[in-house]
Each structure stands twice: as C-alpha cells, then as structure tokens.
Design a protein that fits this description.
Chain B: One of its GO terms (cellular component) is NuA4 histone acetyltransferase complex. Chain B: Belongs to the SWC4 family. Chain B: Its main location: nucleus. Chain B: It comes from Suhomyces tanzawaensis NRRL Y-17324. The complex is a heterodimer. Chain A is built from 17 helices and 21 strands. By secondary structure, chain A is an alpha/beta fold. The radius of gyration of chain A is 23 Å and the shape is globular. Chain A starts with a helix and ends with a helix. By secondary structure, chain B is mostly helical. Helix content of chain B is 67%, strand content 2%. Chain B has 21 helices and two strands. Classes of the chains: A alpha/beta, B mainly alpha. Chains A and B meet through helix 1, helix 13, strand 21 and helix 17 of A and strand 2, helix 10 and helix 13 of B.
C-alpha cells in the first residue's frame, strides 16, 4: 500500500480531494495535500442589474478579477455574509465556474471538503448539504468546522482558535480536534468594521478627495491639506455597488499599510493616556498614505486610534448615525437552535460568575465589558466559560489567525492583555509567521485533513446521503 | 605538454625500466582517442595514473544503473476506506496492476482501517431494566440521604443544645441585669419604670441581636447546605428518562467519552444538565449494567462507583478559585513558599551542626560491643588478654635493649653521650623511635635476604644505619626516620616547610593568630607561621600547639552556641 512505506511520519494518503473554504472576503479552492489553494478569489460577483436583464441566463454572472472591469449596469454583490452563504444561486454558480472552467475537475473522481463556521445554523447546514449533493456530482462530501481545520493546520488538538477575519471575529475552543460550539463567541468588530471606520474617518476630513483607482487617469503627488491634482478617466456609468466595491479596496490598502496597534490601551482612564497620545503623535510614528488621486495624508496618532477599536470597539465614534447603527454593542455570545428546532437560550456554565471571574483589563469600564467585547475580553470570557480542567491547556495553545491579525503589534498587545487578565493561566499565542499562511489557514488545515489516510472513512457519498437523508447525515456524520 | 616534456625540460633521465609499462599503456590510450579537455588532461597526467580510480565513482555507476533499470510501477487503483462505506476512491499504490488486483491484495483491508478503533462502551439495557436500575439508584440515594439527614439532625440537635445553654446563660445575665435595674429604679415612678423597661428590653434585644449575629451566620451556613441539598433534590426531580439516557449513551460512544465534547453537543429538549450530571448518570448506569452481567470486572465497577458529583463540583470550584488569584496574591504565595523553604533549610543546618557538636563534646564511644566483657568470665578473659599483650611488649623491649647493648659493644665511633635529661622528649618518643628502628631494621634484613651481593656494596650510611644507633646518637647526628609520611622530593628548608596544622580556613587561622598573640608566642611576624628557630622539635611542638588552639576555638564556638540556645529556650519558657 502506498501508505505503508512512510506512514510512521506522515500518515497521508492522497485521493485528490478538493477543498473549498468560503470566507466572507475570499473564497479558496484547491487540491488537498497542497500547501496553498489553487484559487483565491473574491467572495463577490458581478451581475446585470434587474432593469438591464436582457438575456436572462444564469451564466451572466462574473467572478474573480473580471469583476473589476467597469461595466455599465453591472452590480457587485457579496455571496457570503459572516462566512455563511446567503446567495445560493450565485454560490453554486461561482463554485461550478471554478470547478469546471478553471480547475477542470471531473466530479466523480474527487471528494469535496467544505469548511463551515461554528455558528452555522441547522437549517443552513441542511441547505448546504442539499445544494452540494444536488448541484455537484462529487464522489463524496464532508463538512468540516473551520476552527477544527485551523487546529489541524497547526497540529494542535487542544487549542483556542482566534479568527480575526473580514466580517467577524470568532473565538472557538477546539478539544481533541472537535470545535466546542457552546463556548464559541463571535463579534463583528473585524475587517469590515475597521473599513467602515476608515471610510467614516476619511469622509470627516475636509478636502480629501477619495476616488477609486479605476477612475484616475493621471495624478500629481500632493500632500494634504493641499488639494488633490488628478485627471479623471472617462468610464461608463457604473452602479454604486461597483463603486463601493472598488472603494473598499482603498480602505483595505489603508488598513494594510498604516494601521498599527498601540502598545497600551489608549482609552484607559489613567493619567498616562495623554502621554501616550503625545508619544504616538511623534514624528517617528508618522506614516504617509497616498490615495489613488495622488494625495498623501500624514497619519500619526490616528492610525493607532483607529486600530485600537479591535480591542476597544466603542473607542471610535462614528460620525454618521447609519454606521453607528450598523454595529450595535455585541458581547459575542452565540445562540444556537438545538437539534429539535425549539429555540432556547443556551445556559452557559457559570455565566453569572464569569463576569466577576474575568477581571476587566485596565482601561475598560465595567459597562463596556458586557455591552461590546473587544478582542482580549472576548478571549478572556471564552476562557472563563471553558471547563476548568481544559482551561490551562487551551490557554497555552491560542492560535491567532485571519487577515486582520496581520496588523503590526496585534499579537504582542493581545499577549500582554491576556496575561494581565488571566494571571493564573500561562498564556501562549501561536501565529503563523507567513502572512499568506495566516490568511488561508483554514483552507490549509482542510487540505491537511482531507489528505490524511485515517480521514477517508469519514467521507459521505451521495448514495449514503440519498439513503439516510440530510437530517441523519448532519446529525450522525458531520458533527 | 606532457609529463615527458617536463622531465625533458628539467633534464631528468628516466629509468629505462619504467618505459616498457608506458609503452604498454600507450596503445590502450590510442584505442579510445581522447578529444578536447580529456586529451589535455590525459597529457598532463601522462602515464602517472592517479592512485584512485576516478572514473568508477559510486555516483556514475548508480546513474548508469538507474538508466538501465526500469522504474518500479505505480498504479492508480480503487479502494474502499471502510468496508461498510458506499464510496470508492482512487489512490496511487506502488506495484503493478496485476499484483495489486490479485485476490490476496484485494482481500486486504485498507491500510488505515486499523486505526479506526472504537471504545468499548456497554450497550444500554432495555427500558424495563433501566427503570429498575433507576429505582434502585433512587432507593440507594434515599438511603444515603437518610443517613445524611440523620447526621444533620444530630448536628442540629447538638447545636440547639448549645444554643439553649447559651440562651440560658444570657437569661440569667439578663435577669441579674434586670434586678440591678430594678434596684436602681425602685424609687422612680411606676409608669416611668414601665417605659424604662420597654427601652431596656429594646436595648437588650439589640444587644441580643448582636450576640446572635454569629449564630445567624451559622444558620446561614446551614441554610446554604440545605439549599444545596434542595438543589440536589430538584435535580433529582429533573429525572432521567430512558430516551435521554439512550441519547447520552449514543453521544458517549460517538465522541468516545470525551466529556467536554459530549457536554458541548448535548442538546436534549428542555433539560439543562451540567457536565457532572452527565458523568454521574453515565457512570452509575454503567456500573449497574456491569453488575447485572456475570463476567464483569469488579475493579471496574468499583472505580465507576467511586465517582461523586459533589466532590467533582467541589474540586472544580477549588480549581476555579485557584485561578482567580490576583498576580499580587500569586507573588505573595510564591515568596511565602520560598521563605518557608529557607526556614526549613536553616533548621536542617542547625540540627546538623548541633549533632556535630554533640558528637564532639561526647565521650568517645566504643566501636566494639562491650557485651562480651559484661560477665565475670568475659572480664577474666579480657584481663588475661591484656596480660599476654603486656608480656609480649615487655619481651620485645628486653630484646631491643639486648640488641642495643650488643651494638654498643661494637667499637664504633660514638659521639659523646648526651645526658638523658637534655632531651626532653626522650621518654615520650622512645617507643616511637624504637618502632621506627624496628621497621628499618626489618627492611634492611629483608634486603640482606633478597640480595646478599648488594650487602657488600652497601654504602656507609646504610652501614651506619644498620649499626642501630642509640637515641642520643641519633639526636646528636640529627637523624630522623620518616616512617610512612610522604616526603616532597628535593631539598627544602625547614623554615619554609608547611605545617599540617595550618591547613585550616582563613578565618580560623586569624583567630588562631590572635590567640597566639595573646599568649605572647612569637610567630616570626606577618603571615609566615614559623617559630623563630625552626628545629624539628620546635616545629612539631608548634604544629601541636596550633592544632590544639584550633580545637579549643572549635569547642568554645560550640559552647557559645549551646549557651545561646539554652538562654533562648529559657527566655521562651520564662515568657510562657
């Protein structure tokens, strides 16, 4: 057998499985056993607006980089929200586009592994299973929880997965490679939240011209508050959703290039705050950000202030009510409907105690902890709900992943805050050093999982699905 | 340019003998004509072929072999990861298709299937027996509860008694107080008195309340206990149905008894159960099932029965509290632990020192058992033995004296005898010296026996030694027999000789020095520890002196310490 030669080290057996990891920002598709997905594409698609639907064929959707071409009457819409597929038609369309046209896959030859978030509802999982069996003819299917995949990528069976993504920040304990659902937490203080902050911040500045890259033909570098000097390109009338999609790229670049987490909390009530402000306003900390128009903005204290809201979500006050309403205070608790579809709030272990047992980190008012939980509070709270016997091992294996975790100084700040908040626990953070690895960690984990020889008995074939039905499969196999 | 050319340039005549082999080589070289670099290289090397055969290195042969041999076949083949799984996957396997599709191979299970192991969890019994089990468990629990209740009642009664007694005491106090008050207030008017009484009673009430706060606290504790019991009762009220237990067993087998996961995925209708509830139910039902089976492991049942929910919860609460400590508390605890350890060490050290001192102060202990000398017979034996030893010694001394008289008879040049009184150490050292002489004479005798030829050539010193000088003569000549002590090779001045008594700690030497100063004993000044006239005798004496001073200082130190301790203990006793 192929495995018999080298199983002692590797234990793998390649069966050419396909791994699909739909995230709220990027969707990743590739072969199991690879160290990197073959396809990393935006989780959005472009489609003709309703009034322009002249030839109403399903294939009029546009995916991937082609979205960025300015077209008249084409709107850009997201497929996923919070890692949950919302637009199933588009999703199926996108996946078959990549499976068939790009990767040229023969469905019956490959099994498919799909990642799902821990907060996936039962009904959602049901539609998911149904859709995948119905629309694709894969040999077999498996649904894997994303934190489980991440734990496999890191090779740690007991860990706490902290995924700081685009739509959501989630904290999930993983025990023996299985995600604990009742202890999982999720907030929306993630990438999109910061993008909205950046937009709000830029809009509030007078005289800043923000233009998407595709609209700019030529530019002359200027420095704010000097006005921008650029020439606009003549483009067709595009939809607002397209323009927003393009603008989001500017915000994204802004986050990538200038954000930095301050070493200490900026909103702490102690007298050092003013010093911190002075410290971070120093020339050393100043960075320039050049907008597509060629206009550069010097940013000192602001870039710390904006990034701070990962740890303290209420620190930034939106200027428009609309955005403020978009992010109501969220303490991260998830509500699950149980197997029998009667909704009942999950009784958390020692819920009353937990708020006392988690000493609020310096600088956070007691009122904010229950209202809106920042990153470290979210983790601390999760830790306090985990069974006491597991807490030490989990705290020692905290995996930080997700694109937003790449902001400089984030892990250092997180480590410091967790240590002060949990003096009794020995905290250790694990974050992949490679940035592309950290962004695609769930996919890589799925790739590891689907190429393990021992995993192959877990696949569920279409035949079995048809015999047992979605309900049973979900309860018995995709636990 | 070839090697020949070089030899020609250097005018070196080559041996005629060497040429024939070269000629032999040449045709072989011609047989495969070299071109380009190879030829140039060959010309340089010439007939001088290198000692190691370069052309046939391991690498080259391997690549050749590799080109020649066929690659081992790999086949893409269908397989079933599990017997009952209705799916076929393809994977690449080493080996030819014919081999792999042979019957033997196809019958083999999938390589990784052996890792698919399941826990051995007992099957849940049918509903009737389950009900029976639950009844038994309930009864058992009731019994336990009853016992507990009994104990509690006993406790409560004891408390009541105490309380009554204290109440009685208080009442007596009260009454006495009342009497006093009454005595005081007798002259007052009657209505006022009643008012005062009211006030008094109020005051008393308040004071009683204060005194009773403690009792209240006690009662609160009891209440808490009661509450926890009530909780237990209410949990009992949330009975385990057969279906729910079945669900629990299913989860347990699915997640292989990983309790945190079982608890996480546990979602049964409206019941909310803790992890401990699940464990308790599972363990007690398992114990019942095993008990009902005939060939079951009694140790396993015992271990299953050991599980106690309340203990488990207590343990977890304890751990929780341990984690809740603040950093300051943790630091304090650590420092306390370190301090405690230091104390322990100090105590150990002191005990050790004290035992050392005690042995120092103690009379020397006999190393041999004295029981054999305790009887009268033993004593006579001992006496006889001692007598025999004494006789032997006397005989020997006699013999030696005879020897000496014989020696002195030989008319050898003898220094004028020194009066006995002149050598102070004469009496003391005699036995020692004679002993040395014995040793030496024995040695010489041996020499004589081994090689008599050497004897004739023996030098004058040996001859002199063999003549067995008397004590006085030896002293006069300054002769000294180094018995077994080690000597440093070469010649040394006695003034620079190191005294063995000086091998002490620096601090000890200092105090020794001060003592010597006190006694007005000259130390040749500075750090050199020499008497002014370093003769052998003075040196040995000096060494003796230093040793005894050191011992004295040691004893004094010990004495001080003991005295201090005694004083301490006395003061402690006195305080108490």
């Amino acid at each position: 057998m192929s495995g018999s030669n080298n199983t002692t080290v590797y234990g793998g057996d390649e069966i050419n499985a396909i791994v699909l990891d739909p995230g709220s920002f990027h969707t990743r598709i590739g072969y199991a056993g690879d160290d990197f997905p073959k396809v990393v594409t935006s989780s959005c698609y472009a489609s003709p607006t309703d009034d322009a639907m002249t030839d109403s064929t399903s294939s009029s959707r546009i995916f991937g980089e082609a979205i960025n071409v300015p077209r008249a009457n084409y709107k850009v819409s997201p497929i996923l929200k919070d890692s949950i597929i919302e637009d199933w038609d588009a999703a199926v369309d996108q996946y078959s586009h990549y499976f068939k046209t790009i990767l040229n896959i023969e469905y019956p030859e490959h099994p498919l592994l799909v990642t799902e978030p821990v907060w996936a509802e039962h009904s959602y999982r049901k539609t998911m299973v149904e859709n995948f069996y119905e629309h694709f003819d894969f040999a077999a299917l498996y649904l894997a929880k994303a934190p489980t995949c991440i734990s496999f990528q890191q090779g740690r069976s007991n860990c706490l997965v902290v995924d700081i993504g685009h739509d959501s920040v989630s904290v999930t304990p993983v025990i023996d490679g299985i995600s604990l659902l009742k202890n999982s937490m999720r907030t929306h203080y993630a990438g999109q939240f910061l993008s909205d902050q950046v937009k709000d911040f830029v809009d509030s500045k007078q005289g800043l011209a923000v233009q998407s890259t595709y609209k700019v033909r030529s530019k002359t570098p200027t420095v704010y508050p000097e006005a921008a000097q650029y020439q606009e390109r003549d483009v067709t009338q595009v939809t607002t959703s397209f323009d927003e999609y393009q603008q989001a790229k500017v915000w994204h670049e802004f986050k990538e290039t200038v954000f930095e987490i301050p070493e200490k909390s900026l909103t702490s009530p102690n007298p050092q705050t003013s010093n911190l402000k002075e410290f971070y306003s120093l020339e050393v900390h100043r960075r320039m950000f050049e907008f597509p128009t060629g206009q550069s903005v010097p940013l000192g204290f602001e870039r710390f202030q904006l990034a701070e809201s990962i740890f303290d979500p209420v620190s930034y006050k939106f200027h428009t009510q609309e955005l403020a309403d978009k992010y109501p205070a969220n303490n991260g608790e998830l509500k699950f409907s149980n197997l029998y579809d009667d909704y009942k709030p999950i009784k958390r272990m020692r819920k009353a105690e937990s708020s006392q047992s988690t000493p609020t980190p310096a600088g956070f008012g007691a009122s904010t902890t229950t209202e809106a939980r920042g990153l470290s509070q979210l983790i601390t709270h999760t830790l306090s709900t985990i069974d006491i016997d597991l807490r030490a091992s989990v705290a020692h294996n905290i995996i930080v992943t997700g694109g937003l975790s790449l902001i400089p100084q984030l892990t250092e700040r997180l480590y410091n805050e967790l240590c002060t908040a949990n003096p009794g626990l020995k905290i250790r953070l694990h974050a992949a050093g490679n940035s592309s690895e950290r962004v695609n960690q769930a996919w890589i984990g799925g790739s590891v999982l689907a190429s393990l020889g021992t995993f192959h008995q877990m696949w569920v074939s279409k035949e079995e699905y048809e015999e047992a039905g979605a309900e049973r499969i979900l309860n018995q196999r995709f636990r | 340019m070839s090697a020949n050319d070089i030899l020609d340039v250097l005018n070196i005549q080559r041996d005629e003998l060497k040429q024939p082999p070269k000629k032999k080589l040449k045709p072989t070289a011609d047989s495969n004509p070299r071109l380009g670099m190879a030829r140039e290289l060959y010309n340089l090397i010439g007939p001088n072929t290198p000692p190691v055969n370069l052309s046939s290195s391991a690498y080259n042969t391997n690549t050749k072999d590799r080109f020649k041999s066929k690659p081992s076949p790999w086949t893409r083949i269908e397989f079933k990861p599990r017997k009952d799984l209705k799916v076929n996957f393809n994977h690449w396997v080493k080996g030819s298709r014919e081999l792999l599709e042979s019957e033997e191979e196809t019958k083999k299970p999938y390589f990784f299937e052996k890792f698919n192991v399941k826990l051995d969890i007992p099957e849940l019994v049918d509903e009737e027996t389950f009900d029976l089990f639950m009844k038994e468990i309930e009864e058992h629990e009731k019994e336990v509860q009853a016992i507990l209740a009994q104990r509690r009642e006993e406790k409560e009664q004891a408390r009541k008694r105490e309380r009554e007694e204290s109440a009685k005491l208080k009442e007596t106090e009260k009454s006495s107080d009342n009497k006093l008050h009454q005595v005081k207030k007798e002259p007052a008017e009657v209505p006022k008195e009643s008012q005062g009484d009211d006030k008094k009673s109020d005051e008393e009430d308040s004071s009683n309340e204060k005194s009773e706060t403690k009792e209240h606290q006690d009662e609160k504790k009891e209440d808490q206990e009661k509450e926890s019991e009530d909780e237990q009762k209410s949990e009992l009220g949330q009975k385990w149905s057969y279906d729910e237990t079945k669900y629990l067993f299913e989860l347990c087998s699915a997640f292989e008894l990983k309790w945190p996961i079982v608890y996480d995925r546990y979602n049964w209708h409206t019941t909310s159960r803790t992890l401990e509830d699940l464990k308790e139910q599972f363990y007690r039902i398992c114990a019942k099932i095993f008990e009902s089976q005939e060939n079951s492991n009694p140790a396993l049942i015992e271990s299953l029965k050991v599980f106690s929910k309340s203990r488990e919860i207590e343990r977890k609460n304890y751990l929780e509290n341990l984690l809740k400590r603040t950093p300051a508390e943790i630091a304090e605890e650590e420092s306390l632990v370190i301090e405690a350890r230091r104390f322990e060490l100090a105590a150990k050290k002191m005990l050790l020192e004290r035992s050392h001192l005690l042995t120092l102060l103690d009379s020397p202990q006999t190393t041999q058992p004295i029981q054999q000398y305790q009887s009268s017979q033993g004593l006579t034996n001992l006496y006889n033995n001692l007598m025999i030893i004494d006789k032997h010694q006397k005989k020997r001394q006699l013999q030696q004296q005879q020897h000496r008289s014989i020696g002195s008879l030989n008319q050898d040049p003898v220094p004028p005898p020194i009066p006995i009184a002149a050598s102070s150490s004469f009496k003391k050292d005699r036995s020692f010296q004679t002993h040395l002489q014995q040793y030496l004479s024995g040695l010489l005798k041996q020499n004589q026996i081994v090689n008599p030829s050497v004897k004739q050539e023996a030098n004058t010193i040996q001859q002199l030694l063999a003549k067995r000088l008397t004590q006085k003569e030896e002293e006069a000549y300054g002769l000294f027999f180094h018995g077994t002590e080690k000597l440093t090779p070469g010649v040394i001045l006695r003034s620079s000789q190191k005294l063995p008594g000086l091998q002490q700690k620096q601090s000890v030497l200092k105090s020794v020095n001060s003592v010597l100063h006190e006694l007005d004993i000259p130390t040749a000044g500075g750090t050199s520890w020499k008497p002014i006239m370093p003769t052998r005798k003075t040196m040995t004496k000096y060494d003796e002196l230093i040793r005894s001073v050191v011992a004295l200082l040691d004893v004094k130190k010990g004495k001080d310490k003991l005295e201090a301790e005694i004083r301490l203990i006395k003061s402690q006793r006195g305080l108490q």
